[in-house]
UniProtKB/TrEMBL annotation, chains A, B:
Function of the molecule: Nitrous-oxide reductase is part of a bacterial respiratory system which is activated under anaerobic conditions in the presence of nitrate or nitrous oxide.
Biased segments, Polar residues type: 79-95
Lineage: Archaea, Methanobacteriati, Methanobacteriota, Stenosarchaea group, Halobacteria
Catalytic activity, as annotated: N2 + 2 Fe(III)-[cytochrome c] + H2O = nitrous oxide + 2 Fe(II)-[cytochrome c] + 2 H(+)
Annotated region described as Disordered, given as residue ranges: 1-24, 79-101
Name of the protein in its database record: Nitrous-oxide reductase
Native species: Haloferax larsenii
EC number: 1.7.2.4
NCBIfam families per record: nitrous_NosZ_RR (TIGR04244), TAT_signal_seq (TIGR01409)
Length: 670, 670
C-alpha cells in the first residue's frame, strides 16, 4: 500500500513520502505504549504530538479511508476501561476567572447550541454552561406545545410534515457586523430546510422547505448586515429529484441557495461541482465561501475520496445577483438556478461568479476570522489548515494563489475559531486536541509550521466544532472557548449504550509560553446527542420579551377574555370552544360536545405576570398547549370517545394548581 | 369574609381564629415592605418568617382559594424587575464539600428526574447537577430514535398511541429496602399509564395503559422488595368511562391500582372516595398510603374545597390481596375492582382494607421516612404536616389516632424528605422556603411546633418536590438535597416568555444552631419544563451496560452481519432491506426499491466498542434510527416518491463520518 506524493495544486509545496503502512506502524506503536500505561490517559494524548508533525503528513485520502475508519474515535485509546479518567489531573494556574456563577447571579454570555439530530436549539449560559432552555425547531416537542398548537403544527406541516430534523449550524443575525439579537437561523441536514428562531420570543417562527435540495448542511447569514441567508445543499441529487436520472450520478447536483432573511423565501440557487459542505461569508457582503468534497462526483466512499484534492467554492454574491437580475438562469420548481459549475460560461473570463480554490482532499469547514482578512479551511484528512486571503479572491488570476498559508497542525483538523488577538484555535478530531496558532506567523513562515503553533491541549474526545465567544462576528471577546467533543467515553457516570457527548469549556484569556499556549481546561459537560455547533453572544445583545404582546398577533388569533369564554356550535359535527386561563381557573369550568365532533379549542392566558405559564392538557386526545402570559393558542381534535375527560393545567402555577381543571363531557351519539 | 375555625378531626387541637382578610392584610404588609427594598431579595424572604407562625394558621380552604390563587407564585415579589437578584449574597460557611466535579472525575450520585410534561426521565450527576442523558418515556424522541424504530413505536402505539405524556413520580426498584438498580417506574398523569425504564440499557421497556383510569398521579414500588407497583388514578371518572354517568359525578370513581413489576400487568384495583393523589409505602410490605383531596366529590374548585378536611387513604395490601383472592370484587374491563369506599362492607369491622385518616383539607403528599416509622402528609392549604404513626395503622381503633403530631411549619407545605439523622425537610410553596425540623420533637411536643423547627432557608421560588439522596430508601446519605422550584423569575438570563424552572442544590450535611439549621444553598440550575420530582442513588447502585448484548434479543430480531447485508423483495409492494453498520460504512452501499413499496429496514451496529453509536437517517421519509454497539433496530416506511435519497449517519463516528452514506434509489412506477 503506497502513499503517493500528494498532488495538491496550491495545497502545499512540500513532498510527501510517508506511506500509509508507515503511518499505521507509528500509530500502532503509540497505541501499544498506551496499552501499557492505561492508568493515566493524559499521558496518552501528550505522547501523540511527540510523534512529530513532520511525520504526520497529508494522507492520500482514498487509500486512507480504511485506516481512518478504524482509527477514528480512537476507541483503542480508552478501550473498555473506566478507571483511567478519574486520575486525569485538572491543572489550573490560578489566574483563570471562575466559571461558577453563584446562585442569583447571571451568566455573562448566551450560548446557542444546535441540537444536531435532536432537531432543536439549546440555550446555555456561559461560563456556567447551564442549559437555560431549549427551542424546538424541527422536532415536535410537547412541553412547549410545539407542533401541538395550530400555529406551530401548521408551520411544521407546510415545511414538509416531517417528524424530525437535524440542526447543525446556528447563525445569529447581524447589523454592521455585530449580533443584533433579532433572529437565529439554522439548517436541517436531514431535509432541505432552513428555520428561523425569533429571539424576542425564543420561538421558531419560520421554516422554509427549500426546493431542489435534499439536505441543507452549511448555513449562515451574510455579514455584515444579514442581507441574505445562505444554505448549502450537501447531497447531490437529480434536478429535480422526481425519478429522472436516478442511475446517472453525473447529473446529480449540489446547490448553493440564497434566502430572504425577512420573508424566508428562496431567492435563487447556484449549481456547482462536488458536494457542498460548510459555509461562512466575508465581512463585506461580497464573498460566501464554502468547503466542498467529492469533486470526483462519485457515489461510494472510495469514489468520493479517489483524488488528492477538492475545491473550496467562493461565491461572488453581487455577481450572482447580477446574473439572476439579467435572467441568466434556468427555473426549476419556481427557483432561478444559476450555472456555477466549472464549465459554466459565467465562470469563464475575468469575473467568475464562483471561484474554485484547490485544497487537500475533503476539507471540512470554513471559518472567516473576525477582521475578515482570512478564511480558514481545515483539512480533515490533511493535517493542514489552508489560509485563504479574502482580498485576493477578487484579484488573484489563479485561484490557488489565494491560499497564503497552510500550516500543518495535527491529525484531523476540523474547525477553527478566534480570540481577536491574532490567534486561531483549531480542533484536531483524531488527535483529540485543540491547537492554538498564530495566524500571521503561519502566513509569513509557510515552510515552518512549527513556528506558528503556540500550544496544544488535550480534549476528551474527538472534537468537532469549537467556538469562542462572538468569534463569528467582528467582536470576539477572547475569554472562553467551547469544544464540542463527539465522544465522552469514560468521562462521566455510565448511562447505558448511548453515551452523552462532552462539551468542554476552555479559558483562552491568558497567552502564555507553555505547552498549551495558555489554554486551560475548565469544565466538562455531558450533553444529550448530538450538539453540533454553537454560537455565543454577550448578554447585552439579546433582549427577550417576558410576556407575549397580545397586539403582536392581532387579527391572527382571538384573545379570549374571561367574560368571553364560551362554546359555539358551528354545525352538527363542529364545535368551537373558547376559554380564558389564569391561576387556578379556566374560564370554562366544563363544556359539552358530542361524540365525533371536531373541536377547535382556543385559549388565552390572561395573566400579565412574567413566568406564570399555564398548560392545557386533555387526556386521551393528544392535546397539550403551553400558554405564556398574554399568549393565545389553538388546538383542533376529534372527540371520538364518549365519556368524561378532565382538562388540567400542566405548569405548576399556584397552590391550587392541582385543582385547576375543566371538564370535557363527550355525549354519546346514537 | 370570615375564616371559620377549622373542623379537622385529628388534624390539630388548637383553635384557629384568624380570618382570611387578616391574613391578606399581613401578607400585603409584607409585600409593601418588599416593594420598598427590591434590591435585595434575600431580605424579602427572610422577612417572611418574622410574621410568626402563630399567625399563619390553617386556612379554611374553600374561602382561601381566591387568595391562594392570587398569592401563588408570589409574582409581586419579583414583579418585572430583573436587577434585584444579582445582589443576592451567596453565603458559604466553608465547611461544605465542593459541588464542582473537576474534568475527568465522576459524580458521586445518579439523579433520576421526571420530566413532567416533557414526558421523559432525565439523568443527572450529583453534586455537579450536570444532565448526563435523557430517557424518553411517554414522548417520541428523535435523537435516540424512540418511537421511530419498530420496538419502541409498537410499544407506544399499544400503550394508547398518544403523542405525549406527563411523567411525575419516579420510583426505583428495591431489594431488601435498598435500590437494586434494576428498574425505574414512573406514571403518566396525562393518561392512565405506568412505564418501566430498564436501568441496564437506560431505555423504556414497558408501558402499561391501565384500564378504567384516566390519569395516574401517585406511583411507587412497594418497599422493601418491589412485589407490586402501585398507581393512583387522580381524576374521578365514570366506571367504565364509556359514555355512562357523564352528568352524574356521584358515580365517578378514583382507583388505586396494583401492577406486577415484572409482567407490568394490572393485578387489581380498589375504588375509594375522593380524588387520590400521591403515594408511598411503608417499609414492611403492608401499607400503601395515599394523599387524597375532594372528599366532597365535587367537580368545580369551590365544591372540591368546601369542607375542612380530607382523608388520607392507607391501603392494607395483604388484606386487599386476600379479598381479591377470595373473589370479593367486580370485574371491569378485565380487572378485579375491589370496593374500598367508606361504605364498603370490606371496610366495616376491625380489619378494613382501606383506612380513612382525616387531615386538614387537600393535603399534597405522603413520604415515609427511611426507617419506616412515620409517614408525613404535607398540608398544602394548611401550614402543617400531619405525622402518621405507621405502626398504629393496624392497631388504632379510630383512624385519627394514627396522627401523632402536626407541626405548623409555614405556608404551603408540599413535600418532605429526610437525612437519616432524625430530621425532616419540608418545602413551603407559598413561603418559598425549606424548613428543617426534628421529627421526634414534633411528635413529643405537639403544642409547640416552634420547638421542632430547626431552621429555614429561602429558595427561589415556589418549591414543589424536594428530595435528599436515597431518602426514599432505607439508606439516606444525608449530604445533598435538591429543591425543585417551580418558578425561576429573575434568577437566570431571560429566555422569552416560557421560563425555566430552577432546581437548587442544598448541602444538608452540617447540623448547626443557626438560622437555617445548617442548610446551605450551593447552586442554582435552570431546567427545561417541567421537572416534577427526582430520586437519587449512589453510583454503586447502578450498573448500566456499555453496549447491547446481541444475545438479549435473540429470536426477537435479526442480527445483520456485514456479509448478510441484502435486499429481499417479498412481493410487488413489499421489500425488506438489511444492512450492517460500522464506522464510515453501511453494509449496503445502495439499494433500489419501487415507488409505493412498503420498505422494512433492519440494521445492526456490528461494532463492539463502547460509545460508537451510529444513526440511520433517510431524508424525506421520517426515518431515524439510533444504533448503539451490537444493537439492531427496524423501521418501516413507504417509498412514495421516486428519486434518489441519501441515507446518512447522524452520530459523528469517524473522520469519514460525513462520507458515510448509502443511497436509496426509488424507481418510478408506470
Amino acid at each position: 500500500m503506497t502513499h503517493d506524493s500528494a498532488d495538491t495544486d496550491g495545497a502545499t509545496d512540500e513532498t510527501h513520502t510517508d506511506t500509509i503502512s508507515e503511518y499505521e506502524a507509528q500509530l500502532n506503536a503509540v497505541l501499544e505504549d498506551i496499552d501499557e500505561t492505561p492508568a493515566d490517559e493524559s499521558d496518552v494524548s501528550l505522547e501523540l504530538p511527540t510523534l512529530g508533525l513532520n511525520r504526520r503528513d497529508f494522507m492520500k485520502a482514498g487509500a486512507a479511508a480504511g485506516v481512518m475508519g478504524s482509527l477514528a474515535g480512537c476507541t483503542s485509546l480508552a478501550g473498555s476501561t473506566n478507571s483511567g479518567s478519574e486520575n486525569t489531573p485538572h491543572s489550573s494556574s490560578g489566574d483563570v476567572p471562575s466559571h461558577i456563577v453563584p446562585p442569583g447571579e447571571h451568566d455573562e454570555y448566551y450560548g446557542f447550541w444546535s441540537g444536531g439530530h435532536s432537531g432543536d436549539i439549546r440555550i446555555y449560559g456561559l461560563p456556567s454552561m447551564r442549559e437555560l432552555t431549549r427551542i424546538p425547531v424541527f422536532n415536535p416537542e410537547q412541553a412547549k406545545g410545539y407542533g401541538f398548537d395550530k400555529k406551530t403544527s401548521d408551520m411544521l406541516e407546510e415545511a414538509g410534515d416531517y417528524t424530525w430534523g437535524d440542526s447543525h449550524h446556528p447563525s445569529l443575525s447581524e447589523t454592521d457586523g455585530k449580533y443584533d439579537g433579532e433572529y437565529l437561523y439554522v439548517n436541517d441536514k436531514a431535509h432541505g430546510r432552513v428555520a428561523r428562531v425569533n429571539l424576542t420570543y425564543f420561538e421558531t417562527d419560520a421554516i422554509t422547505n427549500v426546493p431542489n435540495v435534499q439536505s441543507v448542511h452549511g448555513c449562515c447569514i451574510q455579514s455584515p448586515d444579514t442581507e441574505y441567508v445562505f444554505a448549502n445543499s450537501e447531497f447531490r441529487t437529480p434536478l429535480p429529484n422526481d425519478g429522472r436520472d436516478i442511475n446517472n450520478p453525473d447529473k446529480y447536483v449540489s446547490l448553493f441557495t440564497a434566502l430572504d432573511p425577512e420573508s424566508m423565501e428562496v431567492l435563487w440557487q447556484v449549481e456547482v461541482d462536488g458536494n457542498l459542505d460548510i459555509l461562512d461569508t466575508d465581512k463585506d457582503g461580497r464573498w460566501a465561501i464554502a468547503s466542498a468534497y467529492n469533486d470526483e462526483e462519485g457515489v461510494e466512499i472510495e469514489e468520493m475520496t479517489k483524488n488528492d484534492r477538492d475545491f473550496v467554492k467562493a461565491f461572488d454574491v453581487p455577481a450572482i445577483q447580477k446574473a439572476v437580475d439579467a435572467g441568466n438562469y434556468k427555473e426549476v420548481n419556481g427557483v432561478p438556478v444559476v450555472d456555477g459549475t466549472k464549465s459554466s460560461s459565467l465562470n469563464k473570463g475575468d469575473n467568475p461568479i464562483v471561484r474554485y480554490i484547490p485544497t487537500p482532499k475533503s476539507p471540512h469547514c470554513v471559518e472567516v476570522e473576525p477582521n475578515g482578512k482570512y478564511a480558514m479551511v481545515a483539512g480533515k484528512l490533511s493535517p493542514t489548515v489552508s489560509i485563504i486571503d479574502i482580498e485576493k479572491l477578487g484579484s488573484a488570476s489563479d485561484p490557488k494563489d489565494t491560499i497564503v498559508g497552510q500550516p500543518k497542525l495535527g491529525l484531523g483538523p476540523l474547525h477553527t475559531t478566534y480570540d481577536g488577538r491574532g490567534h486561531a484555535y483549531t480542533s484536531l478530531f483524531i488527535d483529540s486536541q485543540v491547537v492554538k496558532w498564530d495566524i500571521e506567523t503561519a502566513v509569513n513562515s509557510p515552510k515552518k509550521s512549527e513556528d506558528a503553533i503556540l500550544g496544544k491541549i488535550d480534549v476528551h474526545y474527538n472534537p468537532g466544532h469549537i467556538q469562542a465567544i462572538q468569534a463569528m462576528s467582528t467582536e470576539p471577546t477572547g475569554d472562553w472557548l467551547v469544544v464540542l467533543n463527539k465522544l465522552s467515553k469514560d468521562r462521566f457516570l455510565p448511562v447505558g449504550p448511548i453515551y452523552p457527548d462532552n462539551d468542554q469549556l476552555l479559558y483562552i484569556g491568558n497567552d502564555k509560553d507553555n505547552e498549551t499556549g495558555g489554554m486551560e481546561l475548565v469544565s466538562d459537560h455531558p450533553v444529550y446527542p448530538e450538539p453540533h455547533d454553537a454560537i455565543f453572544a454577550s448578554k447585552d445583545k439579546i433582549s427577550p420579551a417576558k410576556t407575549w404582546d397580545a397586539a403582536d398577533y392581532e387579527g391572527e388569533k382571538e384573545y379570549v377574555k374571561e367574560s368571553n369564554s364560551r362554546v359555539e356550535r358551528i354545525d352538527d359535527e363542529t364545535v368551537e370552544v373558547y376559554t380564558s386561563v389564569k391561576r387556578s381557573e379556566y374560564g370554562l369550568r366544563d363544556f359539552t360536545v358530542k361524540q365525533g365532533d371536531e373541536v377547535t379549542l382556543t385559549a388565552t392566558n390572561v395573566e400579565g405576570s412574567q413566568d406564570i405559564v399555564h398548560g392545557i392538557a386533555i387526556p386521551e386526545h393528544n392535546v397539550h398547549l403551553a400558554l405564556a402570559p398574554q399568549d393565545t393558542r389553538q388546538a383542533t381534535f376529534t372527540a371520538d370517545k364518549p365519556g368524561v375527560y378532565w382538562v388540567y393545567c400542566t405548569y405548576f402555577c399556584s397552590a391550587l394548581h392541582l385543582e385547576m381543571r375543566s371538564r370535557m363531557i363527550v355525549e354519546p351519539r346514537e
